[in-house]
Design goal:
The chain has 175 residues and is mainly alpha-helical. 74% of the residues lie in helices and 0% in strands. The protein has six helices and no strands. It is globular.
């Protein structure tokens, strides 16, 4: 008897697109490190321009922005590659701009919310109680709102320039 393969048809459609969108490990990790460093420098220059980066919190703030940008790159890169596979350069630019920008901001906001929650946890009820869930939800929502109002502006103008540059580089890559 000859063994029968489970599916003799070649992978096509969604599964093939998903497999092709998986980035190489080097591009993922080196890109995350580079993107995190560039965003941290952008935030540094922006904060010094606004005279808003106190020395005693500098490491924490830059660490949050670095880690958020690095995680944003890691989360966004497969989505960018999936959305822009075999598409024209305009679509590749738009996908990179959307997913990298949103991923960087969203994951930085998440890290900010976790840090915020850690600070206020000392005044919250024990884990698992109904009040704790309310406190967790509203503390996290407040932190995300505060980041959206006060933290997003640190991406401007240099972070926006870096995002446009990264999107252009992605759009120029041949597929």
């Amino acid at each position: 008897m000859t063994p029968v393969s489970p599916d003799p048809r070649p992978a096509s459609g969604f599964r093939a697109r998903l497999a092709a969108s998986w980035p190489p490990l080097g591009e993922w990790l080196i890109g995350a490190l580079l993107w995190g460093l560039l965003i941290a420098f952008s935030v540094t220059f922006s904060a010094y321009g606004l005279h808003r980066l106190p020395g005693n919190h500098r490491a924490i703030v830059l660490g949050l922005y670095f880690a958020g940008a690095a995680l944003g790159w890691i989360a966004a890169l497969p989505l960018v590659r999936f959305a822009s596979l075999a598409r024209p350069p305009e679509t590749r630019f738009a996908a990179a701009f959307l997913f990298l920008g949103a991923g960087t901001a969203a994951l930085t906001a998440l890290l900010f919310a976790l840090h915020y929650r850690q600070f206020y946890a000392q005044w919250h009820q024990p884990f698992g109680t109904v009040i704790w869930f309310f406190q967790f939800a509203f503390t996290s929502a407040s932190a995300v709102y505060q980041f959206a109002v006060l933290g997003i502006r640190h991406y401007l103008p240099f972070g926006l320039i870096l995002l446009i540059g990264a999107s252009i580089l992605h759009a120029r890559r041949s597929r």
